[in-house]
Amino acid sequence: MMESEIEEASRIIAESDYAVVFTGAGVSAESGIPTFRGKDGLWTKYDPEEVASIYGFRRNPKAFWNFSRELMVKMKAKPNPAHYAIAELEKLGIVRAVITQNVDMLHQMAGSKNVLELHGSMEYVDCLDCGRTYRWEFIEKMLEEGLEIRCKCGSEYVKPRVVLFGEPLPSDVLSRAIEESKRCDTFIVIGSSLVVYPAASLPFHAKNSGAKLIIINTEESQADSIFDVVIYGRAGEIMPEIVKRVKKLRGIT
Ligand code: NAD
Ligand code: ZN
Questions:
Q1: Nearest CA owner, ligand 1 atom 13
Q2: Relative to the alpha carbon of 156, which ligand is closest?
Q3: In the annotation, is 119 catalytic?
Q4: Where are the beta strands (DSSP E) in the chain?
Q5: Cα 220 from Cα 60, distance rounded (Å)
Q6: How many CB atoms lie within 10 A of CB 129?
Q7: Could you tell me the distance, in angstroms and rounded to a whole number, from the CA of residue 134 to the centre of ligand 2?
Q8: How many CB atoms sit inside 10 A of residue 162's CB?
Q9: Can you tell me which atom of ligand 1 is nearest the CA of 28?
Q10: For the purposes of burial, counting CB atoms within 10 Å of the CB of 141, is it exposed (0-12), middle (13-18) or buried (19 or more)?
Q11: Active-site residue among 83, 107, 119, 205?
Q12: Residue 108, Cβ neighbours under 10 Å: how many?
């Protein structure tokens, strides 16, 4: 492990009273959900324009749901030690918000309360023709049984409230994310390559407002050079170690 970086990150976090965590697909990798980019990424098998854009969805919702079925099997995933460690830092009053690009709801499952989902989530699924709304569990069951996803009205244009390529981000969530990034004293990125907008811009908001910046990733990101502490490693191993040290530094047993 990166001993001195982990120690430095722990010290910064122990001294923080307004930390914001920002996560990407990497935080859920150890829960079994594949990332999009990277060597085992889904984009090596699927064409994002086909399966994850709004144009692809309108052309062929079946391709989107076939893709989601593959992700979904993994979507039965449980939070991993990184999600729990983040939730624990919130309980300690250090982390005030979790901004995530993920749609898998694992932060909430782990106990995080103030979660800003920049790309929405799979929790609600709407029929674009008649307006009916379904809970994820209902759709999940249809996918498990190998059924074609259709609304009761017969439409196949049933879409989860996630942001597809070509769709705007929810502006209220985005503006709250920017506010939190400007307000925090410590900004912690976990498992994001920081290439997708606005992922790339949030650390800069934090930096320009004087926050300390920490990043934990298995690979280099676009923006490593602006971070005060860069840790290469698996989030599920690093984060519990950091929490252990933060508690020790704060005298919590
Ligand atoms: P990304 O751009 O966030 O990059 C993934 C990053 O995670 C990489 O930089 C890699 O270094 C890092 N990583 C991989 N395994 C890790 C681990 N065990 N510990 C720490 N870091 C690790 O993600 P992406 O895959 O390029 O996807 C882009 C968009 O799609 C994002 O919005 C992403 O959140 C979303 N997505 C969401 C899910 C999900 O909901 N679980 C899954 C795939 C993609
Ligand atoms: Zn309908």
A1: 26
A2: 2
A3: yes
A4: 19-23, 95-100, 115-117, 120-127, 133-135, 158-162, 186-190, 212-217, 229-232
A5: 35
A6: 13
A7: 10
A8: 18
A9: 41
A10: exposed
A11: 119
A12: 18
Q: Do 215 and 231 meet the contact criterion of CB atoms below 8 Å apart?
A: yes
**CA proximity to 22, closest of 247, 207, 160, 252:** 207
What distance lies between CA 96 and its chain's CA centroid? 16
Whose structure tokens read 């759709």? 139
> Exposure of 228 by Cβ count < 10 A (0-12 exposed, 13-18 middle, 19+ buried)?
middle
Q: What is the mean pLDDT of each run of 10 residues along the chain (253 residues)?
A: 93 98 96 83 87 94 89 78 98 98 94 97 95 94 90 96 95 97 98 88 97 96 95 98 98 89
How many Å lie between the centroid of ligand 2 and the Cα of residue 52? 21
Q: Give, using CA atoms, the residue closest to atom 8 of ligand 1.
A: 193
Residue 157's nearest CA partner among 66, 47, 60, 67 is 60
Which tokens in the block code for residue 83?
A: 């999600």
Within 6 A (CB) of ligand 1 lie 24-26, 28-30, 33, 35-38, 41, 101-104, 119, 191-193, 195-196, 216-219, 221, 234-235
pTM score above 0.85: yes
Residue 154 Cα, ligand 1 centroid: separation in angstroms? 35
Chain length of the chain: 253
Structure tokens at 58: 């309108």
* Closest ligand to Cα 152: 2
pLDDT of residue 222: 85
- Going by alpha carbons, the residue nearest to atom 14 of ligand 1 is 26
